[in-house]
Amino acid sequence: MEKVKILNNIKYNVCGLAVLLGLASTAVLAHDPVFGIGPHVLFKDGFEVALGVESEKAADEKEQALQLEVTYGITGDWAIGVDLPYDYKDDGTNSSNGMGDLSVFSKYRFWRKDSLGLQESAAVLVKVITDTASTSKTPFLGKGTTDTILGLTYGYEGRRWYRWAGARYRFNGKNNAGVDRGDKILLDFVGGIRPTPTGYLEPDTVWLLELNGEYGKKASFNGSNLANTGGTEWFISPGIFWTKRNFAIKAGVQIPVSSNLNGSQNESDYRAKLIFEWHL
Asked: Is the domain covering 2-279 a CATH 3.10.310.50 domain?
């Protein structure tokens, strides 16, 4: 009888350890999409430093940015951060480069459900994009307003399969010329797969496929809509998320699949992103 009790205790302890390891693995390997948003947050008092390179092209218009992003975990569910970009823009006639608009952001995970090897969660976020670009010598860089983004996101992160969904609303302000730049809605649907489940100490690869949609309202001036503004674009975006312990690389490219822009506007040719992340 005593032997049966001992065996039962061992069985329960092993099961409990398996559950804990599953949760720990899911938490440590938490991911976010490349172009969309996800509910991932940092551990309490943790830091994440990310260095990213972005590039996009639409006909003769080219934009590139080098971004330094620093995030701090206030609690295990609440993070704040700052984004410092250095921008280069070229419209085919004029070009400029210099410090872009500084952004501050916050994300709060309000729901989380853990099970063996699986974590589901949801979060809200807010991001304020200031009007601080270097425009004294390079006026082409500035947008002339402070914009705000509000977002909601859900994530399902398993040992093999991932999925995310997110929605953001960007409130674009009125610039110094009196143009109301028109708000924008962004939608993201993402799937991911880890072909080979690995442990924390091993390199880990997740392949991603995103569907990203953007709907922009028309800009207006003195109450009248401007014809060559606003419209809809959709992108298919393959990507990869590679991690080893507390270091990660993620990269992807947005390929336009549908465009319905108002008036005469250049349709997107591509957008690309490469990010190096380090968790401290």
From this structure: no
